[in-house]
Design a protein that fits this description.
By secondary structure, the chain is an alpha/beta fold. It folds into two domains: about 140 residues, Aspartate/ornithine carbamoyltransferase (Rossmann fold); about 160 residues, 3-Layer(aba) Sandwich (Rossmann fold). The protein is built from 13 helices and nine strands. It is globular, with a radius of gyration of 19 Å. It starts with 13 loop residues before the first helix and ends with a helix. The model has no long low-confidence stretch (mean pLDDT about 95).
């Protein structure tokens, strides 16, 4: 992965996915500081606010001996104050790597096109690869395997769902998604994931009924119904997703040892009930912790020796 961009889970081979997971697990167990990225600088460009992404990248770079510079949209003005191409060609003369959290996936692609240093997608409307890698790391820790497991995703076929599906396809986990009409996974993402799925003998199932999707699942996953930038659609989405809330009753249809996952922040009372997210089956804060370890592994793989 040295010197590579990470814009999509589809950019990674299965071996690279496993390389990141295994390295992240070793880093987590070691709990030691490292100087592998001493003298390296990460630029964090954020059009959207963040808790987990910002802090985990900042701490990850620091614990690897490097340094990070945070740049908000007000400071940079991607595409407004100055062209994305100019931002990219300026930053690559200052820093060693860029992580960008943007509204449009095209923005991350443009940064990668013009920057001569690696670019990491720290979230776009198309994908959230760092989250998905932390998710499958968490599943592997809890279940001891990935191949043959069934992950049931309830809700919007959004950026998180896209990356999680591609990650599952890469490691051989079955993926079921229950979404109302008009909110399914895109045909483009399905096409991207079908080839690795066939190689490992896994399957993807698109459903409307959450009860069917969750039956006998090993992992139950949901995310917000209205993401940042979609606030004007909130009322419409609340109506469309009525009946898709994950609560204790719905969770009981999964396997008894199923785990519950959510990338956070959660809208309690909407996509998830308190009796699910606060249950013993919930691993949401371990998920959040693993963002740090996965991002350390990604940075080390791309910039390290």
């Amino acid at each position: 992965m040295k010197g590579k961009d990470l814009l999509s889970i589809g950019d990674l081979t299965p071996d690279e996915v496993w390389g990141i997971i295994n390295r992240a697990i070793r880093i987590k167990k070691r709990k030691a500081m490292s100087s592998i990225l001493a003298g390296k600088t990460l630029a964090l460009i954020f059009e959207k606010p963040s808790l987990r992404t910002k802090v985990s990248f900042d701490v990850a770079m620091n614990q690897l001996g490097g340094h990070s510079v945070f740049l908000s949209q007000a400071e940079v003005g991607l595409g407004s104050r100055e062209p994305i191409s100019d931002v990219a060609r300026t930053l690559n003369r200052y820093v060693d790597i860029i992580a960008a959290r943007t509204f449009a996936h095209a923005t991350v692609e443009s940064l990668a096109k013009y920057a001569t240093v690696p670019v990491i997608n720290a979230l776009s409307d198309g994908e959230h690869p760092c989250q998905a890698l932390a998710d499958i790391m968490t599943i592997f820790e809890k279940k001891g395997k990935l191949r043959g497991l069934t992950v049931a995703y309830i809700g919007d076929g959004n950026n998180v769902a896209n990356s999680l599906f591609l990650a599952c396809a890469s490691v051989g986990a079955n993926f079921r998604i229950a979404s109302p009409k008009g909110y399914e996974l895109s045909k483009e993402i399905l096409r991207l994931g079908l080839r690795p799925l066939k190689k490992v003998g896994a399957e993807v199932v698109l459903l409307k009924d959450p009860k069917v999707a969750i039956k006998s699942a090993d992992v139950v996953y949901t995310d917000v119904w209205t993401s940042m930038g979609q606030e004007a659609e909130s009322a419409k989405r609340l109506k469309a997703f009525a009946g898709y809330q994950v609560d204790k009753k719905l969770l009981s249809l999964a396997n008894k040892d199923a785990i519950f996952m959510h990338p956070l922040p959660a809208h309690r009372g909407e996509e998830v009930a308190a009796d699910a997210i606060d249950s013993k089956q919930s691993v949401v804060f371990e998920q959040a912790e693993n963002r740090l370890h996965v991002q350390k592994a990604i940075l080390a793989e791309i910039l390290g020796k």
